Amino acid sequence: xxxxxxxxxxxxxxxxxxxxxxxxxxxxxxxxxxxxxxxxxxxxxxxxxxxxxxxxxxxxxxxxxxxxxxxxxxxxxxxxxxxxxxxxxxxxxxxxxxxxxxxxxxxxxxxxxxxxxxxxxxxxxxxxxxxxxxxxxxxxxxxxxxxxxxxxxxxxxxxxxxxxxxxxxxxxxxxxxxxxx
Length: 181
Known about the structure:
Umud Fragment, subunit A, elongated, alpha+beta
């Protein structure tokens, strides 16, 4: 009996397709964490993306926001000069990027500024997170899929693309060869 018989694993279309299905399911599940969790997943993942008004924004009738990547607030590492995200400033329904100019842990307050001129004292509980950077392209796509419309589009896109690939390439039946006598 030959124990040294080598078994070759041949990668074919079905293997590649099912690998792509598994990757898409993992991606949908990771987006579901952000979509369904409270506070956009910052407590679960440690970071998230939000649509925030940048500090160089003029305070006029029309506000322009950017998708910002933020991390969970850690008072041990927070220093003066860090940028934080605060929700609902100036009576709005927006996230705002503001710079920390003073920290008072005894009073549980932080003083921030939006424009470098006016200072606002806020409770530490009002801070949603610490600004890391503006989102790159992939983080922007991730942000889009964390609202209802984007999440539905994400699932429908995966369903459409994977169905098309399956029916056009994976489920192809071999052509019948003519019988020879």
